[in-house]
Amino acid sequence: MHFDLTDEQKQFEDAVERLLTDKLSGNILTRDEAVPGLAAAMDEALKSLAVPAILVPEAESGLGMGLLTLAVAGEALGRHAAPTSAIRSAVGAWAIASYGDSTLKARWLEPLLAGDAKVGFAFSETSDHWNPDEWRASLRDSRANKRCIEGAADADLFIVGVEEGLCLVARDAAELHASEYPPLDTSRPHAGAMLEMADAKPLGGRAAAWRLYDALMILAAIDAAGAGRAALDMSVEYAKTRVQFGRPIGSFQAIKHALANMAVDIEPVRFFCWYAAHAWDVSAPEAPWSAALAKAHATDVAVKTARAAVEAHGGIGYTWEYPLHLLLKRAMHDRMVLSSPTQLRARAASLPRPLT
Amino acid sequence: MDLGYSPQDRLFFDEVRAFLDGTWTGRLPKSGKPEPDFVREFRLLATERGYLYRSIPKVYGGSEQLPDPMRGRIIRDCFERARAPMEVPGAGMSMLIPTLLEHGSESQRRMFIPKTILGEYRWAQGYSEPGAGSDLASLKTSGKLDGGEWVINGQKIWTSQAYSATHMFALVRTEPNAGKHGGISYLLLELDQPGITIRTIHQITGESEFCEVFFEDARTPADWIVGARGGGWGISKTTLKHERSNIGGVRTLGLLESLWRLARSIEINGRPAAEDPVIRDRMMTLEGYVQAQLFCGYYQFARTVGGGSAGMLPLLNKLAGTRIALEVAQVAQDILGDRGMDLPVKGAAGKRNPAQWLNQVLGSLALSIAGGASNIQRNIIAERGLGLPKDEAL
């Protein structure tokens, strides 16, 4: 029994962390106009760490390192609120390697593994309808209208949720409609799309769809866990240096207790996410339960922690130039996508729970 | 990441289970509780095999095993499955023995450890006083040497189960002219003597587990002091050097499961409370916190086994567990609704659903006070865990 990352995973974690600290230091991400360039640079850097190949089995030319390893990268990306398409590429490549026919694999696998092709996941149709049981689009339809597709503007292909399961639609069969407003989380812009379904290629049934959806929920959960922990760390550093009444505010019990409560909430969250990723990797019977509940729990707690962090910072936390709001918005985004916490808790309540 | 036992672990697991089959499960009486003599005999056999009292040297009655948290974990797992008794519970085992092993004299160890292991000496902890709660070092109970004895005057409070204890380890001010912390000594004493009066405290649950202990010229031998005069404060902080086989979070898992049983057994609006959307959402929210705490515990255990540190995480466990227990009680209250008006309070602990719950609702409040108040724990997390500056007034 050894509930910890392997040495290899820890080294990988360090490598990703070093890279992100190097490329995204200070408040560089608060400059909106810098984000697209940084996203491209992040994609390149994460390509060099082979992040897009992590999830695909070795037999399909991937690294076969599993969702837990990808989650390690995901947590670091959340910590830094990093813009990148690398996680989507990794999951998209896995879906095609697992459920695509030989034509699809021949067309898409290599560019996805190399990080040269980008994926958009087209799930939601109407507000609050995200999950595979709620998809009403069909392969029989001539068109499918989807909303809130992360990275849609850069996507080369869309993995689309339909009643039958999943299908693949190429970029040239999609007409994008951008949102009226700039995105809340500038690190992950999204758009809607009208997808022509005439050439849609089936990519696995509903079981495949749920398995993909579970993986994405776990990655959203660990992303939020990373953002929440980073918000706590920033607050602790701030409390040590900000002086009022002649002493660091961190010496006041009011601040200490607020930060201690944040730590009790957020610190354990990542381990539940690890477990959910591990359960997904070994296809444990409770994997869907853990995925839904981890997503609900991690994103709820991360938003709560990040909001408390803004309060702990005082006025500076309420400014655009100070990067704390990026973490709050990152966690809010994670909480909003892929079904709300309330819906996910209701879902988990209907699924087999872990044996104890 | 591996949540199973290795082949060697599995062998050890089988060995412990075979032992339990032969000495416990297979020999239990058909009905009723096992006799005290049977339990005592079983503990001796289990100690001989190296399963109990593992951190205690053989000369003092322990089994003197090398620290091995994984083996400790397997033993606990097997014993819990077989519902077999482990070490005699109480402050003697958890606090006094580690303290004596680290700071006690040879004669103190020989005098007290073997009888504590066998349950003949039962220990009360004499720390808190009416005027010294969270600010424990302000304690005033005094000890003065008079011939060959300490003469003790003052009062202790919140002493768990003092009425059934035979002895006490106490923090006593023996050096009134030394500083606040430096004037305290760690004394051992017998409770059954004329200078000591024990009074139980009637708690909000109607039960009386805690006591007040009054000292009026109570006496204890001069050499029943552990460590040096004035060194008691540091000694009382002796960290438990046991192998840690407890995984935090497992207990809250059990608590949540009994809440699910309650939610399935009581109806709200014509259907089980577990299917009521509001109750279900709150219970699933609790599930999230419990799972996070459970796997955080697994991680801490893995770090311990690997000889590493889990950083600040161990400091969080008590507060996390307390908050979960308080919320479980709150949800239970809402499931019970006005049925709570017809449920017992006093003496319901250990009863089955739903009679236990009113007691649980009130009893959970003790968790945020006992063994260091939650607000003190928040200070500890902030200062030792997060590295925030100490409050100079404390």
UniProtKB/TrEMBL annotation, chain B:
<dbReference type="GO" id="GO:0005886">
    <property type="term" value="C:plasma membrane"/>
</dbReference>
<dbReference type="InterPro" id="IPR036250">
    <property type="entry name" value="AcylCo_DH-like_C"/>
</dbReference>
<dbReference type="InterPro" id="IPR013786">
    <property type="entry name" value="AcylCoA_DH/ox_N"/>
</dbReference>
<keyword id="KW-0285">Flavoprotein</keyword>
<dbReference type="GO" id="GO:0050660">
    <property type="term" value="F:flavin adenine dinucleotide binding"/>
</dbReference>
<dbReference type="InterPro" id="IPR006091">
    <property type="entry name" value="Acyl-CoA_Oxase/DH_mid-dom"/>
</dbReference>
<comment type="similarity">
    <text>Belongs to the acyl-CoA dehydrogenase family.</text>
</comment>
<dbReference type="InterPro" id="IPR037069">
    <property type="entry name" value="AcylCoA_DH/ox_N_sf"/>
</dbReference>
<dbReference type="GO" id="GO:0016627">
    <property type="term" value="F:oxidoreductase activity, acting on the CH-CH group of donors"/>
</dbReference>
<feature type="domain" description="Acyl-CoA dehydrogenase/oxidase C-terminal">
    <location>
        <begin position="230"/>
        <end position="385"/>
    </location>
</feature>
<dbReference type="InterPro" id="IPR009075">
    <property type="entry name" value="AcylCo_DH/oxidase_C"/>
</dbReference>
<keyword id="KW-0560">Oxidoreductase</keyword>
<dbReference type="Pfam" id="PF02771">
    <property type="entry name" value="Acyl-CoA_dh_N"/>
</dbReference>
<dbReference type="Pfam" id="PF00441">
    <property type="entry name" value="Acyl-CoA_dh_1"/>
</dbReference>
<dbReference type="InterPro" id="IPR009100">
    <property type="entry name" value="AcylCoA_DH/oxidase_NM_dom_sf"/>
</dbReference>
<dbReference type="InterPro" id="IPR046373">
    <property type="entry name" value="Acyl-CoA_Oxase/DH_mid-dom_sf"/>
</dbReference>
<feature type="domain" description="Acyl-CoA oxidase/dehydrogenase middle">
    <location>
        <begin position="124"/>
        <end position="217"/>
    </location>
</feature>
<protein>
    <submittedName>
        <fullName>Acyl-CoA dehydrogenase family protein</fullName>
    </submittedName>
</protein>
<dbReference type="InterPro" id="IPR052161">
    <property type="entry name" value="Mycobact_Acyl-CoA_DH"/>
</dbReference>
<dbReference type="Pfam" id="PF02770">
    <property type="entry name" value="Acyl-CoA_dh_M"/>
</dbReference>
<feature type="domain" description="Acyl-CoA dehydrogenase/oxidase N-terminal">
    <location>
        <begin position="7"/>
        <end position="120"/>
    </location>
</feature>
<keyword id="KW-0274">FAD</keyword>
